Amino acid sequence: MSDTAYRVDTTAAHPDMPTAEVGDYMALMKPRVMSLVVFTGLAGLLAAPGELHWLLSAVAVLAIAVGAGAAGAINMWYDRDIDAVMERTSQRPLPLGRVEPDEALTFGVVLACGSVLLMGLAVNFVAAGLLAASILFYVFVYTIWLKRRTPQNIVIGGAAGAFPPVIGWAAVTGTVGIESLVLFLIIFMWTPPHFWALALYRCGDYAAANVPMLPVVSGKRETKRQILIYSVLLAPVAMAPTLLGFAGWIYGSAAVLLGAIFIAGAVAVCRDDTDRSAKRVFGFSIFYLFALFALLVVDRAPGVAG
Length: 306
Fold this sequence. Notes:
- With 306 residues, this protein is mostly helical.
- It has helices at residues 22-28, 31-47, 54-78, 80-85, 101-122, 125-146, 153-157, 159-162, 164-173, 178-201, 203-208, 214-218, 220-243, 249-271, 276-300.
- Helix content is 74%, strand content 0%.
- The radius of gyration is 20 Å and the shape is flat.
- The N and C termini lie far apart (50 Å).
């Protein structure tokens, strides 16, 4: 699918652009997405074996947050044309003309370089390299290459959002262990049912913007089937920390319960001809990931018997 058929310059509609405010630049960083990235990165850091000085831990989390914000800003710069078409994204700073495209791109690039440099100089270069890889993957692989070309955009592109716990783990250990790769895999498997639930009730938005999300290309029935498949596959993956011995049964029991609820929600989506179940699954999926990683940290805390 060619980008040129529908990429337009939305700035022509805003010849008298207002002065951008701090809030506009914060919005460019996608703070809601950033909060999940920061939390899973922090969880990876806290779950890792070994110790990192609290100040360096704070710097590592800050670098992860800034790196995520940088990727979000560059994504908004590139997607400003389709953001203007979609109801969900039409109030972002670029479609509204509150920030000029060149300013958004510069803002994102400066933040990206600064976050990687900060991580490398203050923490270690393994974590910095992983942070750089996550930003580059989100921008070039997901945003520029996959998003407008294939319904597998979320499946492959989901790897970008799965990096944070690996980065947090590497900040402490200086390595990428099997444990951190398991945490990566949990988020990687969680991403498709999470975003496809959103796409089900925002299908019209994606169709209007010519973004080939799964429900646009393959229909809602197939999308619901894929949500159920990935939810079922996610359940044993989420149990892996306990099965591999780096989390106890506090985490493991919760993973079983949360996984069962997720699967039940996916079954409800398959049976529901309205958008209600999809909206519930989307909301629950966010809670699911927060709860899973929070319990991982609790279970690995000193003095807690798993």
